[in-house]
Amino acid sequence: MSGRPPIAPLPEPSRVPRRGWHCSHFCYRFDRARIQQLSADQIRAGCEAFTAAWNPDQSLRPARMQTYLTSGHRADWIAMIMDPDPLKIDAIHQAVLAGPLGSAIEPTWSFVSMSEVSEYVPDVQQYKARLLAEGESEDSATLAAKVNAYEQRLPMMNRQRLSPDFPDWPAACFYPMNKSRVVGANWFTEPFSRRNQLMAEHARSGIAFAGRVSQVITVGVGLDDWEWMVTLWGRNPEYLREIVYKMRFDEASAVYAEFGPFFVGYRCTGEEILAHCRIAS
């Protein structure tokens, strides 16, 4: 016997994450000049294929998918898709481009990421320690009630982070972000305790919008150009504006955050995309 510890078996190779889902955001725009070159029959067939691409058979449908009309010149519509299998996500994108309208559809931007439970989400004991540090008494009934409630909520909250339900709300906002690496504000050289404190403050700002804004943060580290993608759903677009503005004042954002392009979208179907964008069938 060599005395060496046994080597744990390696997981089977797979494109499906052991924890969490793949996530892609796609932005598209119609090429109006190209559409004018298509015949009426081609446009009719293209519209049918377009709506079918966003309504695949159940066996081909990703776990989560929403489409959104968007204002501004950068895109006509946006899709957000999540599934354990990244190729099931990309199959939707390919189906959209493969139809008769495909030559008149321009993908303008995309972001590839995965869902995760952040290292800053406290477990039950860490949550209790945070409450004690904030002034709760060790033997108080209030502390016990808060800890018990958190313990009951935590599995549900983590499931929502890993395999989130998309709310049926009218507005959504998407933006990628990094944490700063500049001298004097390098997030990655701060100790974990300091980063954890700042993210706890940031979370409290977001909690104030419970019921008005829902959020999921997916990680793009090693997958895309930015480190995270923030998706916010709002009962009304004004809540999206308010939460982003309020959270900019948190130190985690004010000092350490770098933001990419912002996109806002409004829930729609494939048929509504065609109608809104004046693509006649």
Description:
The chain is an alpha+beta fold and 281 residues long. The chain folds into two domains: 22-115 and 267-276, Alpha-Beta Plaits (2-Layer Sandwich); 160-264, Alpha-Beta Plaits. The protein is 36% helix and 25% strand. The strands form two sheets. An eight-stranded antiparallel barrel has the order 1-3-2-11-5-9-8-4, surrounded by four helices. A two-stranded antiparallel sheet has the order 6-7. The longest helix is centred in the middle third of the chain and has 22 residues, at 141-162. The chain is globular.
Short description:
The protein has 281 residues and is an alpha+beta fold.
Instruction: State the major sheet.
Output: 8 strands, antiparallel, barrel
Strands of the widest sheet, in order across it, are 1-3-2-11-5-9-8-4
Number of distinct beta strands: 11
CATH topology of the largest domain: Alpha-Beta Plaits
Radius of gyration: 22 Å
For this structure, what is the CATH class of the largest domain?
Alpha Beta
Low-confidence stretches: none
* Helix content estimate: 25-40%
Distance between the termini: 75 Å
SSE pattern: EHHEEHEHHEEEHEEHHEEH
Q: Number of helical runs?
A: 9
What is the CATH architecture descriptor of the largest domain?
2-Layer Sandwich
Strand content: 15-25%
Q: What is the mean pLDDT? A: 95
CATH superfamily of the largest domain: Apc35880, domain 1
- Shape verdict: globular
In total, how many domains does the architecture comprise?
Answer: 2
Judged by helices, strands and strand pairing, the structural class is: alpha+beta
